[in-house]
Amino acid sequence: MMKQYVWIRRALLLVFLLVALVGCSANNAPQPGTNAEPAPIEVEFQTKTWAPKVGETLTFKLVVTQKGKPLDNPDKVYVELWKDKQRENHETVQPKKVGAGLYELKQTYKEPGTYYLMYHVEAGEVHEMSKRKVVVK
């Protein structure tokens, strides 16, 4: 009979330890509202034409918003420029800030051909980028 009580005690002790361990485990499930994804950045890349003539100076505008409002202080804003098939020789340019969420870059093309511009806007963990083609005649 005594052996039976020892076995019951051990079983109860084991159950108690298992309950204690399960209660102490970390809850790795995301809590509602605490792990929200960062809001995306929207960029509108504007110019009067994407097919300028040689020697024509274009003004490129970047309108940067987040949650529908101008993104006034992103971490980085820059534009890569290169001629077709010469990406390794690209130039990186910082556009001029001209207002809340508004940046401008002036560019003059001296030779005909196809060129590319790729803007980059970084804010926190969000990096928005897009490439546009300019065909100079």
UniProtKB/TrEMBL annotation:
It comes from the Bacteria. PROSITE patterns: PROKAR_LIPOPROTEIN (PS51257). Residues 37-120 form the YtkA-like domain. InterPro entries: YtkA-like_dom. This is YtkA-like domain-containing protein.
